[in-house]
Each structure stands twice: as structure tokens, then as C-alpha cells.
Write a structure and sequence with these properties.
This protein is an all-alpha fold and 362 residues long. It has one domain (30-360). It contains 18 helices and no strands. The longest helix is centred in the first third of the chain and has 54 residues, at 2-55. It is globular, with a radius of gyration of 22 Å.
Length: 362
């Protein structure tokens, strides 16, 4: 009897041991690819640091630099299978963790503080821009997922929105690289050209701050575009940009509910069979949870900045991974159409925002 009782225990112990060893080997197999992505990230961050030291603000963020470096490497060298597992892990799982951590830096109180009229105008501008840009993308022959990425990037916060939306809709690396590359280029042109509208349209500091917050993609780029116009423009631009960024949460949640439908009728049928928590990805639930805790002041101010920095670094690592997985030849097939969609969308956003600041008469 004792031997019979011990035998299952030995079997279970051996099975557990084998599973543990297998899991350890799987994790160890990710290390080379992840370290390659980290190396690209360090180079990209170093380049951004040089930009900051020379120009005070980075005109091209490390996120963009990382994906461009990755694409350049991929165009002359194909990573071995030993590296590909870690690269794929960095592109997906690390990006999902980064999106979740972003919630810790967002407080819903910013919505109330911005004022009802301005907040409504920002929300309306973002919604209209999302719808029209998506329609333009489809009209120009872009895929549904690529159209969503372009619309999200142009309407909300450029590369960060694209990076956040991509894992939710299951976009591939080629679509992400296409949307980020052209969006990033026009983002830099906006920073350089937008101040020219101040004398041309005789904008006040407040009007220009609102215009910059509504049209410029990234927060650092808003600073770069508004600092020359004065402190008031910088403060207003940052506030408007923050409210615009907060639109990313509802967008991502909505897209997570819509994502199964991108797979056709089978996906739609599956939606009806499963509950809300199966539809919303774990990292979106985490994002909303952290944002709620932050709004309730349960996340101390002293830890917000470190969490945000970790999220930023993980996002850059993920973009490096995406670049390393992109076949540059794919971009040549969609480049012209993506450029047209992004440019037309940006012109529309600029026109709407200009009309808005004129009507507000601030």
C-alpha cells in the first residue's frame, strides 16, 4: 500500500519538474531576442538624448528612431530563429504591459478641470477626425486595420496611440511600421511649421496653445511647438493635449469590443457567446484599473513618474522589435496610399482646429 501511494506522488513530482524545466527553457529562449531589442532601444534613446541636449526637445522620439533602426537592420539582415522568439515576445507581450502601465499616469479629474465647452470641442474634434480619417483610409484602399491605426494616430496622440491600439486590433508589424513612419514624419513637419500660423492668422497665445494641443501628435512635440510662443501657449497646449490623450482609453476599450468582428462572421458569432471580460484584453482592464486608482489618489505621485518611464521604455523596446520584424518591401506597396491618408487627415484636423479656435475667440 505505501508503494502504491508513493507512486502517483513521484509521477506528479516528475511531471511538475519537467514542466518547470520546460518553462525555464522557454523563458531562457526569449533572452537573446529581447536583448537585441534592448540594444536597439539604448541606441535610440541615446540619439534622443543628443537631440534634447542640442535642441532642448526631441523632434524625433526614441520610439520612432527605434523602429527605423530596427527596419534598417531587418533590411540587410534577417534575425535567426533563435532570436525571433524574443523579438515576437517584445513586440506583443511587452507592448501590452506598457499599455497597461500607462493607466497609472492618467487621472480622470483632468476631464473635469478642462471646462465643459473646451472638453466638448476636443471630444467632438477627435471623434470627427477618427471617423473621417478611417473613411479616407478605406477610400484610398487601405486595409481596415491600417485605416484604424492611421485614424488613431492622427486623431489622438500619434505614435503612442498607434502603439496602444495595435495589439487590441491584432495589427501586424508591417501595418504598424507603415502608420508610424509616415505619421512621425508629418508630426515633425507640424512642429516646424505650426508656429508660422501665429502671425499669419494673428493668433493669441491661448488660441495657438489650443491649436497646437489639437493638432500636434506627441506631448514632447507640443512642448517643442509651443515653447517659442510663450508660457501661456505651453500650458494651454499641454492641457488640451492631455484631454486629447485621455480619449485613447475609450477608443481602446471600444476597439477591443469591435476587434473580434474584424475576423468576419465567425468573430461576430463568438462575440455573442462570451462575456465582456473575455472580450476586453487583460491589459485594457489593467489600464482602466490603474487609471481609476490614480483618479482616487490611491497611486502616490512619487511612483507615477517611475511607472511612466518604465512604460515608455517598454514601448520603445516593442517598437524596436516591430522594426526588426518588418519587411521593408511591404511598405513600398502601401507607402503612397498611407501618405495620402495621413496628409489629408492632418489637413482636415488642422482646418477643424483652426475654425474651432477662431470661434472660441479666446
Amino acid at each position: 500500500m505505501p508503494s502504491n501511494n508513493n507512486q502517483p506522488d513521484n509521477g506528479n513530482s516528475e511531471t511538475t519538474s519537467r514542466r518547470g524545466a520546460s518553462a525555464l527553457r522557454s523563458w531562457a529562449g526569449l533572452v537573446p531576442g529581447v536583448m537585441l531589442c534592448v540594444a536597439v532601444t539604448l541606441v535610440a534613446m541615446a540619439i534622443q538624448h543628443v537631440e534634447e541636449s542640442q535642441f532642448a526637445h526631441p523632434y524625433v522620439e526614441a520610439l520612432v528612431i527605434a523602429i527605423l533602426i530596427g527596419m534598417a537592420i531587418r533590411s540587410v539582415w534577417t534575425p535567426s530563429p533563435r532570436l525571433q522568439a524574443g523579438i515576437a515576445f517584445s513586440a506583443k507581450q511587452l507592448l501590452e504591459v506598457a499599455v497597461m502601465l500607462l493607466g497609472a499616469s492618467i487621472s480622470f479629474a483632468a476631464l473635469a478641470a478642462s471646462g465643459a465647452v473646451l472638453m466638448g470641442a476636443i471630444v467632438a474634434t477627435v471623434v470627427v477626425s477618427l471617423g473621417v480619417t478611417f473613411g479616407l483610409g478605406k477610400l484610398l484602399g487601405l486595409s481596415t486595420k491600417l485605416s484604424i491605426l492611421v485614424a488613431s494616430g492622427n486623431s489622438i496622440c500619434g505614435n503612442s496611440a498607434i502603439a496602444a491600439v495595435a495589439p487590441v486590433i491584432g495589427a501586424n508589424g508591417d501595418d504598424i511600421a507603415s502608420s508610424i513612419s509616415f505619421t512621425a514624419l508629418l508630426g515633425v513637419l507640424m512642429v516646424l511649421g505650426l508656429p508660422l500660423l501665429i502671425p499669419l492668422l494673428q493668433l493669441t497665445a491661448t488660441q495657438y496653445g489650443i491649436l497646437a494641443g489639437l493638432t500636434v501628435y506627441a506631448v514632447p512635440q507640443v512642448l517643442a511647438a509651443t515653447v517659442p510662443a510663450g508660457l501661456v501657449s505651453t500650458q494651454i497646449g499641454t492641457l488640451v493635449k492631455l484631454v486629447r490623450v485621455l480619449m485613447l482609453g475609450p477608443l481602446v476599450v471600444g476597439l477591443s469590443l469591435y476587434a473580434p468582428r474584424l475576423n468576419g462572421a465567425a468573430g461576430t458569432a463568438a462575440v455573442r457567446k462570451i462575456g465582456l471580460f473575455r472580450l476586453v484584453p487583460w491589459f485594457i482592464i489593467g489600464f482602466l484599473g490603474l487609471a481609476t486608482l490614480r483618479s482616487l489618489h490611491l497611486i502616490p505621485d512619487m511612483v507615477v513618474m517611475p511607472i511612466s518611464r518604465v512604460a515608455g521604455v517598454l514601448t520603445v523596446v516593442s517598437m524596436a522589435a516591430l522594426g526588426l520584424g518588418v519587411d521593408v518591401r511591404i511598405l513600398s506597396h502601401v507607402g503612397g496610399r498611407v501618405t495620402a491618408a495621413v496628409t489629408l487627415s492632418l489637413l482636415l484636423l488642422l482646418a477643424m482646429s483652426t475654425a474651432l479656435v477662431m470661434m472660441l475667440a479666446v
